[in-house]
């Protein structure tokens, strides 16, 4: 057997948490690291962590992280021998793999041929059918005409799923419940696919009843070996994208696991797979898990976002395995040697608003804190941002992955709940409270999961939690500036309060339901305050303690932390954040000028299509235009009946808050 030699230096062609994740393992193995970054990421953690970093272009991904030529140049210039692609970006681009190899470098991942074989969902399904792996019933042929696809859909039987053959990340996918909606759904799937993947060809599949997404982690080497590392359940999804993942799959039987893992290994062997890969199956769970009711959906020929749950149940480092396999070594363990211990859960923390269709959010993370440990389990935080960093519109809005491991599922869910409750973020809208609500969801707790769970129970999952008693009082006192004093033994610090006994109350104005409300704060001593407001006077005590403040008073017993956010104060307590806008009443009058006759862009984006023209009469709910922002299509509809006075032009680029549509006002 030829001797293999581990790389001495690798380049990581990615950003954010996955770049940090790969760098960490490389450092542990004594391998040098080169980061690449766009102009927007110059100050990012992954850049600081690597031994060396190379700027590869401006912020937009097409000018930087997708510039294969710049990345390969950077590797050659820094003496890197191999390139780790992370996930997303160029990780499943066979042209990139060819270029890497041609430059005399090693691609840390499968061969270009393996990626090609699995790259298009239609061809992959045909290949898997041949290899004897069960595939979802549907049409995955060449024809693309509306009439053909619509008639195939009728044959398959509604509901059906239209999927971009080049799809990924849940994009270019539309569920269609009845034939009348087919044409509109097809058009929208095609547009999204065209812009995301440059390929608008689709396939049509049976929409599986009570679907569960269960996938199998596989690993192959260049010596003809392939193993699996058990399954992960990723059924909790929004917009066909995973939110919470776990391993093992709840309720899986030995028989089901054997059937799924052997099909997965068969699939890997069929394409001589080398490196880390995932075979995704869709499972019909309408009558429990049955060994003959799972079908191949697609293979992801890369490391998966949720790989940490597999690492936690097996105790293995999958990035280390990737590096060893790419360096020519055999798989470190045989199938029998791969352990499975306990239960692991991952939650994806995103800057997004669950209450507004999970609209991605942008902003600065003014405050960001994660717990170091959880009781009865282990915790692992995968992140690529720090407090003070910005979630920009250019990239995926993921803030972190919170991963826990415990002896069994019940303990793991409890550990996750405690991890989320101790996580504090202020400055941008996040899905933190939504994640905590999901973890507490009864059906999820009992293991009765399917991909429709989030949509079905959305209303209760996004219900705003009542603001904790005392949060507003704490915000008002914090806003008055009277909490600023450090805890100190300085007698003047203690005396300071008394000297203000007879002084007038400090005024604070909060914005409540878009109106200014005035409060006054009078200080009794350095921890006792009297608040006056529209509802009268109340005395509260605010004591500094480890990790924040303890607020007590009539009906109040709150332990919380405060953080300054633009225009206000955030109060963070038990995983919930309440934001209070503190303002100058003059600014408010200005804000009121933004009347309802205008629709503005919720975020920077590209106007993909405009459906109406100036002068048109429109009905409430009618589609006015489609905005593409943060890799998604947002349909902008009329909030009320009216006449269009002005509308943006198709293909124009719009800034956040810039006007999209103006209605005629009837004076
Ligand atoms: P998985 O199946 O592992 O969840 P997805 O198919 O959802 O992965 O997509 C992989 C991930 O890659 C996305 O969730 C996203 O975080 C990341 N990603 C994909 N494209 C981009 C991009 N253009 N910019 C930043 N991140 C991206
Ligand atoms: P992507 O490449 O975007 O990850 P997938 O084919 O893996 O696309 O599908 C993403 C998700 O869509 C799945 O995890 C599942 O929730 C849902 N899905 C896909 N195919 C089906 C199907 N035939 N029936 C029901 N749900 C499906
Ligand atoms: Mg998928």
Automatic annotation (TrEMBL):
InterPro entries: ATP-grasp, BC-like_N, Biotin_BS, Biotin_carboxylase_complex, Biotin_carboxylation_dom, Biotin_COase_C, Biotin_lipoyl, CPAse_ATP-bd. Residues 125-327 form the ATP-grasp domain. Its cofactor is biotin. PROSITE patterns: ATP_GRASP (PS50975), BC (PS50979), BIOTIN (PS00188), BIOTINYL_LIPOYL (PS50968), CPSASE_2 (PS00867). Gene3D superfamilies: 2.40.50.100, ATP-grasp fold, B domain. Residues 6-459 form the Biotin carboxylation domain. Keywords: ATP-binding, Biotin, Ligase, Nucleotide-binding. Its EC number is 6.4.1.4. It is an enzyme of class 6 (ligase). The keyword ATP-binding applies. GO terms for molecular function: methylcrotonoyl-CoA carboxylase activity. SUPFAM superfamilies: Glutathione synthetase ATP-binding domain-like (SSF56059), PreATP-grasp domain (SSF52440), Rudiment single hybrid motif (SSF51246), Single hybrid motif (SSF51230). Residues 589-664 form the Lipoyl-binding domain. This is 3-methylcrotonyl-CoA carboxylase alpha subunit. The lineage of its organism: Bacteria, Pseudomonadati, Pseudomonadota, Alphaproteobacteria, Hyphomicrobiales.
